[in-house]
Every structure is written in structure tokens, then in C-alpha cells.
Amino acid sequence: MAAQGRKRPWYLVLTLTGALALGMLGACNGWATMTYYRVPIDPSAETRGIVDEEDRAAVETRVEAYARALDAARSRGWPLAVATMLIGSGIIFFAMRAIGATRGARSALVQLIFAQAMLTLASYWLMRDVDDAELRWHAYQVAVRRDETHEKHEAAEVTRLTERMAHAMGPVVLAMRTLGSVLVLVALTRRRSRDFFDAAAPALREP
Length: 207
Hints:
single chain; 207 residues; mainly alpha; 8 helices; 84% helix; elongated
């Protein structure tokens, strides 16, 4: 009965919500990359709505460069994408079970969050060429759509600034995801969290 009265630590709800977010982000990113490998990218589809022919050609060139970089990195990219999708899906599954205080869910979630963090770091270093090509594509596309009514020299300057911002965002996003993983791991491995899951699981089995 004492176990039934044990309260869930206040930070645990936020922790499991963060774990779900990390899992969904990983699963979606992995699935998106797998889709790019299975379905050829159509450069012309990415230029719809762009009026200027020179801008359309420039966007298509960047899309084609990304497709070539992605294909050249297939031996790295495909296994990483599959692993990212599977680990992200596993995090979602065990986070949901942890919300229900299922025995074993916490330890499995800890291992998966750690694995995802290591995989994210590995992907960042192993797929830099592909990520750079994708950033150049998206940054130019965003700048073109935003500045079609501006003068050419103004649009070019905006494009350069957008590309610099996009490249700077890579390390920032990596740092934020790593910090999020560390915070989730710390919260899940605290003594109060371990005590809660150890006590809650037997209580759920009582008649």
C-alpha cells in the first residue's frame, strides 16, 4: 500500500514529455531521410512558385547537388537513417510505458536516449557533406522566395546572410538536442525516479 501512495516526482512528467519529443524528432528525421533514399527528389517540384528563371535554375542546381551528396553517402546515410528511425520509435514506445510506470521501461528508456545521443553526434560528423548541401539548398530557396521583389544585389546579400545563419544553426541544434538528452538522462537516473518506478510497478500488479 505504501507503494500505491508514492507520488510521481514533479519533474518526471516534464522528463517523459521531453523523451517523447526526442523520440518523435528522431523517428521523423530517420523516416524523412529513408524516404529521400527511396523516392527520387524532383528538383522542378522545389521551384514551383519561383518566377525568376535564374533563381529557379539556381535552386534546381542546389537540389541536384544535395541529391548527389545524399546518394554518394548512401553507405553511411541509409544505416544511420534506419537506426535513427528505429531508436526514435523505441524511445516513443518506452516513454509511453514509463508514463504508465511499467517495470523496466525506465532502464530501457535510459539506454535508448543515450544511444540516440551518440547516434546524433555520429550523424553530425559523418553526414556533414550532406547536411551542408541541404542547408545550401534550403537557405537559398527561403531567401529567393522571400526576396523575389527585391533588387538582385539585395537578394544576393540576403541569401549570403541566410546561408550563414543556416550553417550556424547546425551546431546550435546539435548542442540543444545533446543538452536535452543529458537532462532527460539525469532526471531518469535520479534516486527519486528509480525509487518511484521500483515501487510503482509492484503496486500496479496488486489485485
